Amino acid sequence: MVEFHIQTESEIPASTQLFSQICFAIASRQFPPGYRLPSTRQLAMQTGLHRNTISKVYERLATAGFVEAHMGSGIFVRVLGQEVTQTATPSQTPLREMIEQSLDGFLQQGHSLHQIRDLFLRATDERLRASTQLIVTVPRHDVGAGEIMLKELQTALSIPVQLIFLEDLDASLSQQTAATLVTVRYFASQAETVLKELQTTHPSAKAFRIIPIDIYSYQQELSLIQSLKPGSRLGLVSLSAGTLGVAEVMIYSVRGEDIYVMTAQCQDVPKLRALIKQAQTIICDQASCKIVKQAIAQYEEDLIRIPKVVCCQSYIDPNSIEVLRRELGLDS
């Protein structure tokens, strides 16, 4: 069970602290699709929060599209698209035998071999057509997250990737016949809503699909933060304002006012310069790493001490890259 930490004396509401931590656990697949969230009683015992507060956090998670309630069973992480739930086990059945079993099932339902072949070929063709246009989508207010994903996917997949804001998605897709949408779970519910509305108004728009990707777990970085001495000055730098906001809440939940946390988007030169002059340790994403190091070199003469720079491995979890490669037909 993931351990949640709540600073009850903080100016940040306890519900916001818990909400951010659960969102991160889901987005980084520590709570995978189909995972049953702890009961309100379990979380109350772990965090010291009232069960009513936890219930409101779960309602907020459901509204945001992260979880769904199963009557009499509990609260579960939503399964999006063709995702495999955590209760599913990898099949050991040979592929040929799986195909034969599927054919037998379709035939028993009254379908002919010609119908099965046509439907299978049509579905395969739709997926291949969708894979020819890869789109990263995020809200306009967090363009930085989109730019990070765009860079990492272009590098990992070696194919063209387009960034389209969620606000512009409907208008853009209405001009296309097929596409694969990629986004992190923070925004997957919004993208799903846009796509459903589009398919309602344009019944022919079936060759669109959403593939939610998981973010990097940042376990090494979190361990480093927990090991910092009280009074340490920590700097966080990213292209994404949303990432900085979530990170700041999570770090405060773990360390409280024990350490001083500063944040800056790498394109905000004055704020980045101030952060470099004060921070003893700087954690940044790969997209910001080069900019941070160049800024340190530029202001080196003004620094009392050179801050330690830790560049995160990635923003997208490597396993999600592999899944995406297979989904797009790029695997060897």
Summarize the structure.
The protein is an alpha/beta fold. 49% of the residues lie in helices and 16% in strands. The protein is built from 13 helices and 10 strands.
Layout of strands and helices, then pairs:
Elements: H1 14-27, H2 40-47, H3 51-63, E1 67-70, E2 74-77, H4 95-108, H5 113-130, E3 134-138, H6 143-157, E4 161-165, H7 166-173, E5 178-184, H8 185-201, E6 207-213, H9 219-227, E7 233-238, H10 241-255, E8 260-265, H11 269-278, E9 281-284, H12 286-298, E10 308-311, H13 318-327
Parallel strand pairs: 3-4, 3-5, 5-6, 7-8, 7-9, 9-10
Antiparallel strand pairs: 1-2
Helix pairs in contact: 1-3, 1-10, 2-3, 7-8
CATH fold descriptor of the largest domain: Rossmann fold
Largest sheet: 4 strands, parallel
- Gap between N and C termini, in Å? 36 Å
CATH architectural category of the largest domain: 3-Layer(aba) Sandwich
Helix content: 40-55%
Strand content: 15-25%
What is the radius of gyration? 23 Å
Number of distinct helices: 13
Quickly name the level 1 CATH class of the largest domain.
Alpha Beta
SSE pattern: HHHEEHHEHEHEHEHEHEHEHEH
Write down the overall geometry: globular
What is the count of structural domains?
3
Overall pLDDT metric: 89
